[in-house]
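Write out a record, fold above all:
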Amino acid sequence: MTQQTTSPDTFFMDAAEGKRFCLLHTPPRGQTPSASLVYIHPFAEEMNASRRMAALQARTFANAGFAVLQMDLKGCGDSSGNFEDASWSDWIDDVQMATKWMCDQFKVPLWLWGLRAGCLLAAQVSQRDEDMPPKLLFWQPVLSGRQHLHQFLRLHVASGIARGQCGYGTAPLAQRLEQGLAVEVAGYRLAPPLARGMAEANLDVICGGAGIVSLELGSPVGPSVSPALTAQMQRWKNNGCYVVAKAIEGDAFWQMQESAPCRALVRASLYAVLSEIPFPMT
């Protein structure tokens, strides 16, 4: 893979409340993009751990002739606002704003590229435009927002155990959220509107006609994707979506601050967008 000859453009996009930090990767030497992608980052610390892989993939896409927008959602990264001030609907609005901006800038086919919980946001944004079925690239998709939230809350429990505080689970945290109170988990102050929106999110909302490429990592990798993703694929197909899924050998880089890049995932993602699988030939 060759290195991109130009650096990404950095800027802040005006939002309804505050500004959102953006990185725009474009093809080198003034080439016109043949497609565009909006990257939707994962939840909480997974976003920071994934920055290296997201940047590598974005540069690879740009070298291949695509435009890629990376946006820090409200309260995340270098965007304005605090994490505790963000709601799930705020993040959906941010993704929709980024999508509209890319469509206005580049009159080319658009992909929503989500990682982990970012796939849930991509799914909800995609259903808002039934007249134009979206193209979706999923990396290790979170299939259930409720389960993902529960796993996040368990980080607080694990931290308590490490400090010698045993004998309680996630129930007290869930109760505080239901009472309208924020909770502190792994250095992030989680507010009820964000927790509630995530708990209600799933991938079944994707409209029929959409094309989905879903890539899973595993080490060692098996001959096929996980049973949970296989079941989700069948639900997508039953809804009239075109689906391709692949298992790729690699480590869970979104869980590790220092991890080697997964070149196989980069290559598979590039091939998917270049070939526009899984869309039927016309």
